[in-house]
Design a protein that fits this description.
- The chain has two domains: about 20-55, no CATH class; about 55-255, Cytochrome P450-Terp, domain 2 (Cytochrome p450-Terp, domain 2).
- About 55% of the residues lie in helices and about 5% in strands.
- It has 14 helices and three strands.
- A hairpin with a 2-residue loop joins strand 2 and strand 3.
- The chain is globular and about 65 Å long.
- It starts with 17 loop residues before the first strand and ends in an 8-residue tail after the last helix.
- About 30% of the residues are buried.
Length: about 280
């Protein structure tokens, strides 16, 4: 026995975003063609769609800097995945883009979200926010000491390539300060950068992707969507990578290099590393 059909006039799918008619498109309650196009940047639109708030010019500049910081880093695994997928399926630009974006995980791009959430958990638990750098340093010492005791890494601390300085870090801090977007998450992360060597016995750089996470948190963007902003930025970078693959292809050479250097290992020998699958 089937359920009674739902009356069409009682069905509602609420949205505050895009709505279309036969001749208009409305986005965020404004006419897309007349009010937004030519007047609002993509960066501002993304901020508004996610938060339903209109950002200040400074917030737009800060978010734009964050997106630029994550757009492209050369031949990263995400870029290589996109190029090799395009080599295999040149008829599927969407497949190549998706392949690159799917690689945005805990080792690449994910540190933005991990760092932002890590810092936010600490900042949200503070009864009062420190007003001076020295006070932030004391909070940071507690954070680093606790992480050390629990044998946990601090997201965003260290970089596999930039051992001396991640050039994005001072640039993002400078822009945040100029635009009044420097908040408690950046303050805490900078403090961690100042004090961690007291506990670790060595100095690690503040990873620019982690700084982006702190900056996005200071922009009051939703913690659960921080990785989405990293993926948005990387989508632009991947499009550039695929354009370059058309101009100066390396996908075939990459594939052939790996294939030609493949070396058979007897199953009995390979089984010695089986514990890594456990």
């Amino acid at each position: 026995m089937s359920a009674d059909p739902i009356a069409a006039d009682s069905v509602r799918f609420p949205t505050s975003l895009g709505v279309s008619t036969t001749s208009t498109i409305t986005l965020l309650g404004e006419d897309l063609a007349e009010d937004l196009m030519g007047n609002v940047s993509l960066t501002e639109l993304v901020y508004r769609m996610v938060t339903l708030r209109t950002p200040t010019p400074g917030q737009v500049r800060m978010l734009d800097a964050c997106l630029l910081a994550l757009a492209d880093h050369g031949f990263t695994p995400t870029a290589i995945a996109a190029r090799l997928t395009y080599l295999s399926a040149p008829d599927s630009i969407q497949g190549a883009m998706a392949a690159g974006l799917l690689g945005g995980g805990s080792r690449f791009l994910g540190v933005t979200e991990d760092c932002g959430q890590f810092l936010h958990g600490i900042v949200a638990a503070l009864a009062d926010l420190p007003e001076h750098a020295d006070a932030w340093d004391e909070v940071a010492r507690e954070v680093v000491a606790a992480a050390r005791e629990e044998k946990r890494i601090i997201p965003g601390l260290g970089h596999p390539v930039h051992k001396e300085l991640d050039p994005r870090t001072p640039a993002l801090v400078r822009i945040a300060t100029e635009e009044g977007c420097y908040g408690p998450h950046l303050a805490l992360f900078e403090a961690i950068g100042r004090v961690h060597s007291e506990f670790l016995g060595r100095r690690l750089v503040l990873n620019g992707a982690g700084v982006v996470g702190a900056a996005l948190a200071d922009l009051e963007l939703p913690m659960r969507l921080l990785r989405g902003f990293a993926l948005l930025a990387r989508a632009a970078g991947l499009l550039g990578q695929l354009a370059e693959e058309l101009r100066m292809p390396v996908g075939m050479d990459t594939y052939l290099f790996v294939e030609q250097h493949a070396e058979f290992v007897a199953p009995a020998e390979a089984a010695k590393g089986q514990e890594r699958l456990a």
